[in-house]
Design goal:
By secondary structure, the chain is an alpha/beta fold. Helices cover 33% and strands 29% of the residues. The protein is built from eleven helices and 14 strands. The strands form three sheets. It has a six-stranded mixed sheet, sandwiched between helices. Strand 11 and strand 12 form a beta hairpin. Helix 4 runs antiparallel to helix 5. The longest helix is centred in the middle third of the chain and has 17 residues. The radius of gyration is 22 Å and the shape is globular. The structure holds adenosine-5'-triphosphate (ATP). The site of adenosine-5'-triphosphate (ATP) has 11 residues, from strand 2 and helix 1. The site of adenosine-5'-triphosphate has 11 residues, from strand 2 and helix 1.
């Protein structure tokens, strides 16, 4: 099957700044992707290129198998909800729904109205009178009710409280189960969305760092705690993504198989083993600097 999104050696430069360098990945239909990375990594630039709002400097970028630029066939099936979504200020919430209804071919007005109710959004209130969180909720309603085969959310939760964010995650999962599509979530709240994500793409300094199934990734790193000597012995032949010491003890976060022979070795050395969350793993992987010093925990 053709991928929904295909990037082949894509580079994007803004003048002297190379925001995205030589990135290749594909996104398949009916999957929820996490597009993750630190501030300035290049995520928004990638999403803008997929949504035809920026041109790559070089490389090939296809959406639904076609170049997306000024291509209605692609853009009618794509919904991009940005962090600071701009709507005309004299519009009210209902006007935004009407416009969305004219743009997206799978738009479901009934569903949009039920979401408006869930988020407690006043239909007749003007956009300029909405609170920051309400504005984010309006973007989320558009994104969900568009039922676009490719729906991209770029940190859509600015100003949203924890209850509203949980509502977003729950509604997304429910509606995705009933109407599978490709969803891209770019977020820094990795632990919060971890249960939603099926595939993880991590961008670091403009380059692709990880492109992996979320379940595979979850089992790929773990933490061991124990006396420094035992940790050294255990970690010596493994890829260590983080180390810390406290007194005579140390922790090491290593890439390995939590359920295979690594576990037996750790147990034989008397080390305590703990799983590592997706967020911890990505923080460690993207926080690594060459020649970084070991962290003192106390
Ligand atoms: N219009 C622009 N002109 C010059 N440089 C830019 C422009 N837009 C982005 N950049 C630079 O490109 C790099 C990638 O930015 P981008 O916004 O894609 O990162 P991001 O991963 O989305 O970050 P964040 O998580 O903070 O939103 C950064 O160094 C940024 O300063």
């Amino acid at each position: 099957m053709n991928p929904i999104v295909k990037l082949n050696k894509v580079t994007k430069k803004y003048g002297a700044v190379t925001a995205v360098q030589d990135i290749s990945f594909t996104m398949e239909s009916e999957k929820i992707y996490g597009l993750l990375g630190r501030n300035g990594a290049g995520k928004t630039t990638i999403m803008h290129m997929i949504a035809a709002q920026l041109f790559p400097t070089s490389g090939e970028l296809l959406v639904f198998g076609e170049a997306p630029y000024e291509n209605r066939h692609v853009l009618n099936r794509l919904c991009f909800v940005k962090e600071s979504q701009k709507y005309p200020e004299n519009y009210n919430v209902e006007d935004v729904l009407d416009i969305a209804g004219s743009l997206f071919e799978n738009w479901d007005r009934e569903y949009a109205l039920s979401l408006i109710d869930d988020f407690g959004l006043p239909l007749k209130r003007r956009i300029k009178k909405l609170s920051r969180g309400m504005l984010s909720a309006a973007g989320i309603v558009v994104g969900l009710a568009s039922r676009s085969p490719l729906t991209i959310f770029d940190e859509p939760y600015l100003g949203l409280d924890a209850v509203a964010r949980t509502l977003f995650y729950d509604r997304l999962l429910e509606d995705y189960a009933a109407h599978p599509r490709t969803v891209v979530l770019s977020t820094h709240l990795i632990d919060e969305v971890s249960r939603l994500l099926e595939h993880i793409i991590v961008i670091n300094n403009g380059r692709l760092l990880l492109d992996e199934d979320a379940d595979v990734l979850r089992g790929r790193a773990f933490q061991v705690v124990g006396p420094v000597g035992s940790i050294d012995a255990f970690a010596s032949d493994k890829e260590t993504i983080h180390r810390g010491t406290f007194g005579g003890f140390a922790t090491a976060t290593v890439m390995g198989n939590l359920y295979g022979k690594d576990r037996q070795q750790a147990e034989a050395l008397g080390l305590e083993i703990a799983p590592v969350s997706l967020q911890q793993m990505i923080v460690h992987l993207t926080g690594r600097k060459s020649g970084h010093k070991e962290e003192e925990l106390v």
